[in-house]
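Q: Got a minute? One more chain.
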Amino acid sequence: RLALSLWDDDRPKAAQSLKKALEFNPVHDQALLYQSNQRIDQEDYDGAKIIIEKVLKTNSKNELALAQLAVIAHLKGDYQTEESLRNRALNSWPKNPHVDHSIGKKLSQKYRFKEGAEYQRKALAFDPGLVPAKIQLAQDLLRLGLDGEGWELVAEANEEDQYNILMHNLQTLHDEISSFTSLEEDGIVVRMSVSEARLYGPEVLKLLVEAKNVLSKKYDYQFTQPVYVEIFPRQSDFAIRTFGMPGGAGFLGVCFGHLITANSPATQTENPTNWKSVLWHEFCHAVTLGKTNNRMPRWLSEGISVYEERQRSPNSGEQMSPVYRKMILSSDLTPVSNLSAAFLQAKSPIHLQFAYYESSLVIEYLMEKHGIDTLKKILVDLGAGIPINETLQRHTGSLSELDTGFKQFAEGFANAYAPEVDFSEPGLDPSDSAETVVAFLDQHPGNFDATLQLALRHLKAGSNESAKTVLNALAGRFADAKVHPAVLKLLARAHQNLGDTEAEIKSLLQIFEVSDDDLEACKRLIELQVERKDWDDVRLATRYFLSINPLQVEPHRVLAEAGEALNDAAITVRALECLLEFETTDLASAHYRIARI
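A: Always. Here it is, folded:
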C-alpha cells in the first residue's frame, strides 16, 4: 500500500517499499502483480510474464494475473490467446466484472481507449452497478471524442458515488467547458474560452487545418471523425480534463487520438512556450495514433512529433545542446529497443526531456537510413497489432544492428556539434576572479562554461568590449552549428550596453534561429524596431511574440501601428479588434480607427 501511495511522487521510495514487502512475503500476489504491471508499461512483456507465472504458481486461478496475461496477448496482437486467457480468468466466476474492468483499464492506460471501452461495457453487462467500470468507461468515451454518452456517464457515476473526487472534478469541469465557444473547419473542432477565442482562436484553427493537411498527406492517413481540441486557461482544468485530477505540471498538451487537450498561454509562468509548436506536436500525435489505431509505443509517438516540430520550423522542438551532447556521449543514451523505459524510468526531469530528444533523433536516423516509406510501413504494422520490436526487425534489420547503428549515428551527430568548442566542465567557483578564469582559458581555450563565466564577470564590471570580444570568439567556434542562445543573449546585452543597436538586433535575430519561445528577446527586438520604424520587421517580430503569448495588449497595439504604417488593412483591423478585448484600450479610438479603415 505504501508503494502504491508513493509511486507518482517518489518512485525510488516506492520501489524500496515494494522490495520490502516481497522480502516479507516473496509470493505476495499484489506486490508481484504491481511489478508485472510496471513491466507491461515498459513493454517488457517477457519480463512481466515471468513475474505473473510466480503468482499463478501459487494460485493458478488468480483472475487478475490471468487478466494481465490477456492484456499482454492483446498488446502483442494475439487476440485468440487473449480471449482464451479471459475465459480462464472467468472460469471460477463466469460473471466476474472485475476481470473485464481490469483488462480494459490497462488497455486504456496503453491508449487503447476503444478496446478499453469495450471491456468496460462487458464489465457493466455483468454488474451494471460497478461504479469503477462506469468511471473508466466515461473517461474512455470522453477521450474518444464521444462526449454525449461520456458526460452522461460522468453525471451518473457522480450521482451513484458522490464521494468520488474524480467524477466530482469532471462534473464541475463540464460546467466550465459548457461556457466555451467552438470554432470549426475541415473536421477540426476547437473549444476555448470566449475571450481567448477572440484574441487568437482563428490563428489556432488556421494552424490546425494546416497541420492536418501537411501531416495527413505525409503519413498517408485520413481522419474518419472530427478531431476535438480543447484549450484551457487554467492549468487545473487542463489537468482534470486530461488526468482526472489536479496536477500534471510540466505537460503542455496531451493527445488521446481524436481529442487533444492543451494549456493556453494564460497558464505560462517564467518559462513560456510557443503554443503553435505545442499544437503542431499534438496534432502530429493525432495522425500517428490514428494510423496505428493507438497501437504505438510512447517513444515512437513522441519521437515523430518532436521531429515534425523541427520539420515545420528549425527553431522548434528539442535541439542539440551541450547538455544533450554530454548525455549522448555518456551512459545516458538508451538503446532503441528499450526506449520506452527511458520515459517511464527517467532519473530526473532533464532525463525525461532527453528521452524526447533522443526519440526524435531515432526518427532522423530512420528517415536518413530507411526513408519515410519504411517509417510508414512500421506504423501500418503497428496498426495491425504487430509489436514494435518485431516490426522494427521486419523493416530495419535486427534489433542489435538497429541499436548499434543508431548509437553510432547519435554519437557522430553529437561529436559534429561545434567540435571546436570545449564542453567539459571547468570546475570553477563563482567566487573565482576574472584573472583565475582567464588563466583557466589560457590552458583550455574555447571552454564553453568558462567563457560564459568570464563574459558575465566582464559585464558586471562594465567591461563590455572585453565581454563582446570573448563572446564573439566563442561564437566563432560554433562554425556551422547554430550558436547557443546563452552566448547570443550575453552578446546582445554587451551590444546594448555599448549602444550598438545594429549589432544588438543581429544577436537578437540569431536567438530566434535557435529558439521559438524567447519572449524577453522578442520584447527587446520589437522595442528597437519600433524606435527605428522598421515596420516590416516589427510585423514579423510581433507575430513571433503572439505565437508565444497572444494575451498581452502591447503586441496587438504595436501590430496595429505597424499595419497602419504599411497600409495593410487586414492586419490592422485584426490587431485593433483584438485590442478591443483589453480593459486598458481606448475603445473609442480603436473603433474609430477600424471604421476609418
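A: The chain has 31 helices and five strands.
Q: Perfect, thanks.
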